[in-house]
Amino acid sequence: MSTETQPAEKTKGLGFANKDGHYRRQVSQFRNAISSKPGAEFPPDKDRYHLYVSLACPWAHRVLITRKLKGLEDLITLNVVDWYMDEDGWKFNPEVPGCTPDTVNNAERIREIYFKVNPEYDGRFTVPLLFDKKQGKIVSNESAEIIRFLFTEMDSLIPEKYHVDYYPEKLRPEIDAVNEWIYNDINNGVYKSGFATTQEAYDQNVYQLFKSLDRVEKILGEHKYLVGDTLTEADIRLFTTIVRFDPVYVMHFKCNLGMIRHDYPNIHRWLRDLYWDIPAFKDTTNFEHIKKHYMISHLKQNPYQIVAAGPKENILPKDK
Ligand SMILES: N[C@@H](CCC(=O)N[C@@H](CS)C(=O)NCC(=O)O)C(=O)O
């Protein structure tokens, strides 16, 4: 993936597309891992790791789901930023329901934590951010990697019922294969459609997005989950996009060739099974933060910052 964003847009502001009209997500810069290997720089530890998230952000949401699924809530402390992101990025605003102050670094903004760790940092100030309280270092700001090491590397500290690996060895090739097109076409596809600034860039992404949703629909017509009949990382990664689809992406990102609830019965069944049956999915989903973040922060998409009333229900009950 290209990192060539325009300099002025690299660390500041909410204009995300490049000059050619295409949105390209930057490559994350902190890529360490918690590891149970002897001598690891970030070993598993009970009171050491801290997570910064936005409840609006689908990438942070993956980590929140994993933290709860793995029974790590007491071991990895958490701070939540305001859903409103302005041109200086995420900020802490404990007055807002569901938000907290920064209880570890006492920062007002996420950007301060990046600069504290690396004064030369020149990337975007993204969440999720996993922080090592003992060394004052950032472990990782890449959700795809954070969830991987949380699946296994903290197991020595948690009860056996949580020793479930959502990226099991024998399913890896299949999980990797679906992750790839789902990331490009769906997880990132909604952003590439919504942040496009030319008709060509939008067209290129929106049709591909729905083609890949059709592909998922077919898989979920044949299996309970994306990879066979067990819950895996692939489901966690897709869920955070699909749960935002009808309430936000259909209208706000112009992903309106269909809605999950009306046009994708198998995806709709899968979404509601996860949400209503597994607390890690429902309890980490905050529709107020999700809707307000996108519709009030993205001034280019929604200059009057009016939050849309619908859909009537953010997610339907299982029997509707
Ligand atoms: N590759 C990162 C992407 C994270 C990301 O793009 N987060 C967004 C929120 S949804 C963010 O913090 N954006 C702030 C910015 O770009 O200034 C991951 O998956 O962890």
Automatic annotation (TrEMBL):
Glutathione binds at W90, R124, F125, T126, V127, E142, S143. Transmembrane segments: none annotated. One of its GO terms (cellular component) is cytoplasm. InterPro entries: Glutathione-S-Trfase_C-like, Glutathione-S-Trfase_C_sf, Glutathione_S-Trfase, Glutathione_S-Trfase_N, GST_Omega-like_C, GST_Omega/GSH, Thioredoxin-like_sf. Keywords: Cell wall biogenesis/degradation, Cytoplasm, Oxidoreductase, Transferase. The active site is at C57, Y191. It is found in: Cytoplasm. Its main location: cytoplasm. GO terms for biological process: cell wall organization. Residues 168-294 form the GST C-terminal domain. One of its GO terms (molecular function) is glutathione dehydrogenase (ascorbate) activity. It catalyses: RX + glutathione = an S-substituted glutathione + a halide anion + H(+); L-dehydroascorbate + 2 glutathione = glutathione disulfide + L-ascorbate. Its EC number is 1.8.5.1, 2.5.1.18. The record marks Y249, Y294 as: Lowers pKa of active site Cys. It comes from the Eukaryota. Active as '1-Cys' thiol transferase against beta-hydroxyethyl disulfide (HED), as dehydroascorbate reductase and as dimethylarsinic acid reductase, while not active against the standard GST substrate 1-chloro-2,4-dinitrobenzene (CDNB). May be involved in cell wall organization and biogenesis. PANTHER family: GLUTATHIONE S-TRANSFERASE OMEGA-LIKE 1-RELATED, GLUTATHIONYL-HYDROQUINONE REDUCTASE. Belongs to the GST superfamily. Omega family. This is Glutathione S-transferase omega-like 2. The lineage of its organism: Eukaryota, Fungi, Dikarya, Ascomycota, Saccharomycotina.
